[in-house]
UniProtKB/TrEMBL annotation:
Sequence ranges assigned to domain DNA polymerase III beta sliding clamp C-terminal in this UniProt record: 245-365
Pfam families cross-referenced by the UniProt entry: DNA_pol3_beta, DNA_pol3_beta_2, DNA_pol3_beta_3
Gene Ontology BP terms: DNA strand elongation involved in DNA replication
Family: Belongs to the beta sliding clamp family.
Protein task: Confers DNA tethering and processivity to DNA polymerases and other proteins. Acts as a clamp, forming a ring around DNA (a reaction catalyzed by the clamp-loading complex) which diffuses in an ATP-independent manner freely and bidirectionally along dsDNA. Initially characterized for its ability to contact the catalytic subunit of DNA polymerase III (Pol III), a complex, multichain enzyme responsible for most of the replicative synthesis in bacteria; Pol III exhibits 3'-5' exonuclease proofreading activity.
Molecular function via GO: 3'-5' exonuclease activity; DNA binding; DNA-directed DNA polymerase activity
Entry-linked InterPro entries: DNA_clamp_sf, DNA_polIII_beta, DNA_polIII_beta_C, DNA_polIII_beta_cen, DNA_polIII_beta_N
Compartments reported by the entry: Cytoplasm
DNA polymerase III beta sliding clamp central domain mapped to chain residues: 132-242
Name of this protein: Beta sliding clamp
Length: 367
């Protein structure tokens, strides 16, 4: 193999690939990336057996071939050379890198030892804009559990039917759900699957370009097809909670306030929050306000009032301020709506007049 390309293009692809390698000490081949050249395309591949990625890089191919090299070594090297044009050549499983001012050899492995890149057979796929999918995933993944004790809670649930894509995540203390209407989607059969939250985090990094992507899934895997990359992840084997039954349909208290006012006051109150991160919210129809208060025996006390339109019954409830600070920024509205049924029931937060995104938070009880 002999190829010539821009370092910035190769460096970008190798950086993505390294994130999808394994840190397995007994199988060093999984700590490596595959570089292949055939016809008019340079392909960079990596896998940790949970996810796999393939990135296409433009360049001049003098001779086809392939090589497998340690990901950390080549990524560190490419990030520290100033030259723009580089030449890569393979001899006896070793990678020779040449620039105008240096020559480098990186010891490699036989390409045939590298895991075969998975082929995903998809009967149907949907097309979405990359920014829309990225925004939607970012708005719900914050509610997914970071613990693998219950894999289904450490996942994001997809439900696709006709022209609707519903994405949800929950760690049992809060729930986020985003509904997307796609003009390019028309699946007559309901498709549901769970994507591990770690895979979703990698998808968020890949979905930065303003383009359309295709998304499809089979029984075991999901695939994202971008303009110059393929990303494949295993699916979570499990059943997502039937969460829709816990979302209230009517409320005794409804409050509307400016989102930025609420957020700034929550962050201010957090300075005085206790070890349990609790913040007390008092929704007062008579005072037309949401009163926030926190106290810490070693720091001090704090209270503040946020102007709001409050209808229905007054109610006082405690919540984890971090959960509120995670979910409220995901609401794409100037005004947000709080919906409650007393101090023991979950609070539903959404944008005023917008049902496409809902964030449900359980109150803190017994403290």
């Amino acid at each position: 193999m002999k190829i010539q390309c821009l370092n910035k293009n190769l460096k970008s692809a190798v950086s993505v690939a390294e994130r999808n390698t394994s840190k397995n000490q007994t199988l060093p081949i999984l700590n490596s990336i595959f570089i292949g050249a055939e016809k008019d395309t340079i392909k960079i591949r990596a896998t940790n057996l949970e996810t796999a990625v393939e990135i296409s890089v433009s360049g001049k191919i003098h001779n086809a071939g392939s090589v497998v090299v340690p990901a950390k070594t080549i990524n560190s090297f490419l990030n520290n050379i100033p030259e723009e044009q580089i030449i890569l050549q393979v001899q006896k499983n070793n990678l020779f890198i040449k620039t105008d001012s240096m020559e480098t050899i990186i010891r490699g492995y036989p390409p045939e030892d590298f895991p075969i890149f998975p082929k995903v057979d998809i009967a149907e796929s949907i097309s979405m804009s990359s920014p829309e999918l990225r925004f939607s995933l970012a708005s719900v993944v914050t509610a997914a559990s970071i613990s693998d004790i219950k894999p289904e809670l450490a996942s994001v649930c997809f439900n696709i039917f006709k022209n609707s894509v519903k994405i949800a995540a929950t760690d049992s203390f809060r729930l986020a759900e985003k509904n997307i209407v796609s003009k390019e989607t028309r699946l007559e059969k309901m498709t549901s699957f769970l994507v591990p939250q770690r895979s979703v985090q990698e998808m968020l990094r890949l979905l930065e370009n303003d383009e359309n992507v295709k998304l499809g899934a089979n029984k075991n895997q999901i695939i994202i097809l971008g303009g110059d990359y393929k990303f494949i992840s295993r699916l979570t084997d499990g059943k997502f909670p039937d969460y829709e039954q816990i979302i209230p349909k009517s409320f005794k208290t409804i409050a509307v306030a400016r989102k930025n006012d609420v957020l700034s006051n929550i962050k201010l109150a957090s300075v005085f929050a206790g070890k349990l991160n609790d913040i007390t919210l008092f929704f007062s129809p008579s005072k037309k306000a949401i009163l926030m208060s926190t106290a810490h025996s070693e720091v001090g006390e704090h209270s503040a009032s946020v102007s709001a339109s409050v209808q229905g019954e007054e109610v006082t409830a405690k919540f984890n301020w971090r959960y509120l600070a995670d979910g409220i920024p995901q609401i794409n509205s100037e005004y947000i709506e709080f919906n409650l049924n007393g101090d023991q029931s979950p609070m539903l937060i959404k944008g005023k007049g917008d049902n496409s995104y809902v964030y449900l938070v359980m109150p803190m009880r017994g403290i």
